[in-house]
Specification:
The protein has 160 residues and is an all-alpha fold. The chain has six helices and no strands. The protein is globular.
């Protein structure tokens, strides 16, 4: 009707939602979103692999690899993160390689293995989330005394 397929419209809506979420996200949330994006891309790749849609499978796997390499791996600070950052770097490289092999060999097991590892990493990342109490708005000040709240008005109504 509007000259655009529903898939394109859904993709555009998804992109806007993701970009909107990124604008207000703190660094911890951004990493969480990268994990989520990679997992979704792998799930899509698995579905396309099952359907035999080679181009869509390849596109989804490439997207997952890009998220891992250009998002998760690139965000590591090896100078500050020390051994943990170096270990994560090696793990992310391993995951990207396994995704490439899964693509080449149509290997659902490798896709599932990478997805499982990403979900475990995401869970660990969420366990170290900054204290949510610090992001909660402070309590509003106490309301004025009752005698100040209930002052008669010229109209005869009581204002709150």
């Amino acid at each position: 009707m509007f000259g655009s397929s529903p898939k394109k419209a859904a993709d555009a809506y998804s992109k806007v939602g993701m970009e909107t979420g990124m604008v207000g996200a703190n660094p911890h949330k951004l990493i969480t979103m990268l994990f989520e994006g990679a997992v979704v891309a792998i799930s899509n790749a698995s579905l396309e692999m099952t359907k035999g849609n080679v181009p869509a499978k390849g596109k989804s796997i490439s997207h997952a690899i890009s998220i891992i390499e250009n998002g998760l791996r690139a965000s590591l600070n090896k100078k500050v993160g020390g051994e943990l950052a170096h270990n994560l770097d090696a793990l992310y490289a391993h995951l990207a390689t396994n995704l490439l092999l899964a693509n080449i060999h149509n290997d659902q097991n490798k896709l599932a293995e990478v997805k499982k590892m990403l979900l475990e990493l995401q869970d660990a990342w969420q366990q170290i989330a900054p204290d949510k109490q610090s992001s909660v708005a402070p309590e509003p000040p106490e309301p004025p005394a009752a005698k100040d709240k209930l002052a008669p008005r010229k109209s005869g109504y009581i204002s709150a």
